[in-house]
Structures are given as structure tokens and as C-alpha cells.
């Protein structure tokens, strides 16, 4: 069994380091720089952000002196500075995958088209990619994963995010032969479908996050994106459009996530969902078995009488765990979580308010739309608009609040990398 701590310590003892190129120095990226600073055998020698001062601050908060931080947008120059053990900030995130000394890229931008382009550039430069950008992953993750496989590099989601944390439990359960009834997460913020950057500004300030990110959390979009990523990596599907999202407790999860005829809410087993209540910030997998001896031992182990049992992790450390995905990609060629094939579940687009023809849709966590989930075959049958393609799209007709947008209702931004990858993905997997 691999021992990350031991292997990193041995790496540093030899004077060697895994070098991470970080793109995006927001809340998540800033955390990553500080976390890596206290780890053995790994460094973040270059941080990219359109706001250079924010990139510098990420280093400063990690305890790195201003004298050791250099600004450059030139790839060769950045590479030379890294060889001199300097820390480089750059406004050109797309240059980072070209830096020879970098082993692995972490995309922490959260912008679908930017993530698609970063993923493509990273794979083309034969480097591993840790895609914290679930917004891009649920749209074009399958084609990027296929490209990475062909290039001999790792495409992976991030440890610490709910999908990665769920995947750990899911793999544990499946390895032991349990049937997975449901997998899900606790939703951290109250659900408000009308949440927008203005409406949540005060809460965002209190939490120290950007208003559009807080809006994305509160309007439910982030939960939809995260559970779609789990679906695409496992084959589990939403039980109903938009998932159930029941208000419950940790103790009641095994009963709530059972079939309707057994007193639960499920029409089918093998599903993804999210829960409101004291479940957050944890993640869970509900399992079952037909073996009477195993049921006896589960009861003996204080797991309850069954037939459903809760495997629960009470925390996810988000970006603080992400460096482990970068390390595992480099040392062991392992992915934390990645699509198993074509899209299984699509994150579709719903009007947050009445929209008018000619209006341009703003980004995720904005004023115009929020995300929901549908099985991929349903989304294709109804020609529903993938959320990750919606930014910059122009409406061709009026749309009512709560209405699902279709591809026929909009003119897409066809100059984007994510659109080109999406078209290629459809051709490859169809």
C-alpha cells in the first residue's frame, strides 16, 4: 500500500520535489499554497491569477517573503526562476502548463471555459491535471479524461471536495462487495433558488468568499455540479430531476434513503442526492447486503439493524486536501475521481428569473440561471442546455422563471474552447 507521507519525505531527503503549477488564487487556491508550504516533498513554485496582487498575497499568507516572489508572464523566464528556487506569480495562467519544470497543474478557477482550456493545454503538454473546476468537468470531463489517457497522464478531480470524499467511501464499499443504495453530501448553506450576488453579498462577506460563489452554493448549483461529478464517475444517477434534497439528520439517512415501499423516498436504488440538515459538512454512502452473517456483524459493530447501513465521513477539507490528488497523480499515476466514460448525468440550466429575448446569460452564481441535474438521456431527449455552455449565450426568446432552457432557445458562444470540446466529445462517445 502506498504511503504518501513516507514517499514525500524520502523525495525531499533526496532534494527533489513535486512541483505544482496553480491556476487561480481565490479562496481555494490561497488555501492550497498555505497547505503545501507545510508538506514534505512538494512545492507550488508558480501561482497564476488575473489579479497579481491576489497571487502575491497567497504566497505571503503561506509565510513566503516578498523578496522571494517574482512576477513574470514569460514561460522560459518562469522556468528559470523556478530552477533558482524562486516563487513566481503570473497573470498568464495559460502559460503555466508550458513551464518545463512543472509536474502537475491544479485548476482552481471555477470558470467552465477557462477550465476546459487549461485542461486541454495541460494534457497537450503531457502534464497531470487536477481539475478543481467541477463546472468544466461535468461538461467536458469525459473527453479530457480520454485525451489524458491517450497522452499517458492523469486527469483527476480533487481530494477534499465532496465528490472526491464520496469517491473514497464508494470505492471502500464496492471493494467489500456492498450494494450502493445512495451516495450524497450534506448541503452547507440554506437553499435559495433566487440567490444572486447582490442578495447574498452580506453572507459572502461574513464567510470570506466571493458573492458569485456564495450564490452558486445557495441556489443549489454547486450541489448539482458536485453530485453530477459523482454520477459520471460511478454510474449512479439522480433518482428524480434535480434530486430529492430532503431535510433529515445523520441518524435518519439510512431510512430516508430507502425505497418508498420500505418507508423511504427513493423510487430506485443506486442514486446520487444531497441532504439538508445536520449532515453537512459530511458526505455519505448508504449500502446494503443480502448476507445474513454480514448483517449480524454490522449490527454487532453498531451499524444498526439494517437493511441499509450508513458509511459517513463527517468532514471534507476542500482545498486543504487537494494537494494529495496532485501528489498521487505524480507518484502513483492515480486519479482521485474521474469520469468512467461518457456523461451519465447532465447539469442543465433553469431560469432564475423571467428572462427576455436578446438577453445574455451571465455566469454560474449570477443573476440569470441556476443548475439542476437530469439523466443524460433525458437531457438529450429534451435538448436541454448544459449549464457549463450557458455563459455568454444569448436568448432567442423570452423564458419564464423556473423554466428549463433548451439549446434551441439560445445562441451559444461558439468561439469557446469548452464548446469545441463538447462537440468533439459528442462525436467521440456517440
UniProtKB/TrEMBL annotation:
SUPFAM superfamilies reported in the protein's UniProt record: NAD(P)-binding Rossmann-fold domains
Domain of life of the native organism: Bacteria
Residue ranges that the Swiss-Prot or TrEMBL entry lists as coiled coil: none
Domain SAF: 350-410
UniProt domain Oxidoreductase DRL-like catalytic: residue ranges: 160-322
PANTHER family reported in the protein's UniProt record: SAF DOMAIN PROTEIN (PTHR37850:SF2), STRU PROTEIN (PTHR37850)
Protein name: SAF domain protein
InterPro entries reported for this sequence: DRL_cat, NAD(P)-bd_dom_sf, SAF
UniProt organism field: Halanaerobium hydrogeniformans (Halanaerobium sp. (strain sapolanicus))
Amino acid at each position: 500500500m502506498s504511503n504518501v507521507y513516507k514517499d514525500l519525505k524520502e523525495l525531499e531527503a533526496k532534494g527533489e520535489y513535486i512541483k505544482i503549477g496553480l491556476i487561480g488564487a481565490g479562496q481555494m487556491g490561497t488555501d492550497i499554497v498555505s497547505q503545501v508550504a507545510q508538506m514534505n516533498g512538494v512545492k507550488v513554485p508558480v501561482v497564476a491569477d488575473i489579479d497579481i496582487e491576489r497571487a502575491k498575497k497567497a504566497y505571503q499568507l503561506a509565510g513566503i517573503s516578498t523578496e522571494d516572489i517574482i512576477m513574470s508572464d514569460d514561460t522560459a523566464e518562469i522556468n528559470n526562476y523556478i530552477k533558482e528556487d524562486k516563487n513566481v506569480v503570473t497573470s498568464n495562467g495559460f502559460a503555466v502548463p508550458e513551464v518545463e519544470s512543472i509536474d502537475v497543474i491544479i485548476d482552481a478557477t471555477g470558470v467552465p471555459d477557462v477550465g476546459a482550456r487549461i485542461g486541454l493545454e495541460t494534457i497537450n503538454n503531457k502534464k497531470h491535471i487536477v481539475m478543481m473546476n467541477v463546472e468544466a468537468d461535468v461538461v467536458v470531463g469525459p473527453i479530457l479524461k480520454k485525451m489524458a489517457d491517450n497522452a499517458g497522464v492523469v486527469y483527476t478531480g480533487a481530494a477534499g471536495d465532496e465528490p472526491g470524499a464520496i469517491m473514497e467511501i464508494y470505492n471502500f464499499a464496492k471493494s467489500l462487495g456492498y450494494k450502493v443504495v445512495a451516495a450524497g453530501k450534506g448541503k452547507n448553506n440554506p437553499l435559495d433558488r433566487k440567490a444572486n450576488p447582490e442578495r447574498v453579498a452580506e453572507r459572502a462577506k461574513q464567510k470570506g468568499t466571493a458573492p458569485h460563489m456564495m450564490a452558486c452554493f445557495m441556489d443549489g448549483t454547486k450541489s448539482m455540479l458536485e453530485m453530477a461529478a459523482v454520477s459520471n464517475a460511478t454510474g449512479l444517477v439522480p433518482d428524480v430531476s434535480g434530486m430529492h434534497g430532503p431535510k433529515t439528520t445523520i441518524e435518519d439517512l439510512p431510512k430516508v434513503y430507502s425505497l418508498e415501499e420500505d418507508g423511504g423516498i427513493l423510487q430506485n436504488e443506486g442514486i446520487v442526492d444531497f441532504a439538508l440538515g445536520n449532515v453537512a459538512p459530511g458526505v455519505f454512502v448508504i449500502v446494503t447486503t443480502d448476507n445474513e452473517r454480514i448483517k449480524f456483524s454490522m449490527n454487532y459493530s453498531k451499524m444498526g439493524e439494517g437493511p441499509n447501513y450508513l458509511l459517513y465521513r463527517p468532514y471534507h477539507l476542500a482545498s486543504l486536501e487537494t494537494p494529495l490528488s496532485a501528489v498521487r497523480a505524480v507518484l502513483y499515476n492515480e486519479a482521485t475521481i474521474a469520469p468512467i466514460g461518457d456523461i451519465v448525468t447532465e447539469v442543465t440550466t433553469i431560469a432564475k428569473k423571467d428572462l427576455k429575448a436578446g438577453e445574455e446569460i451571465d455566469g454560474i452564481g449570477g443573476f440569470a440561471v441556476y443548475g439542476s441535474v437530469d439523466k443524460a438521456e433525458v437531457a438529450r431527449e429534451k435538448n436541454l442546455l448544459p449549464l457549463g455552455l450557458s455563459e455568454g449565450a444569448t436568448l432567442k426568446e423570452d423564458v419564464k422563471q423556473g423554466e428549463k432552457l433548451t439549446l434551441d432557445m439560445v445562441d451559444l458562444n461558439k468561439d469557446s474552447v469548452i464548446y469545441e470540446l463538447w462537440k468533439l466529445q459528442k462525436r467521440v462517445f456517440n
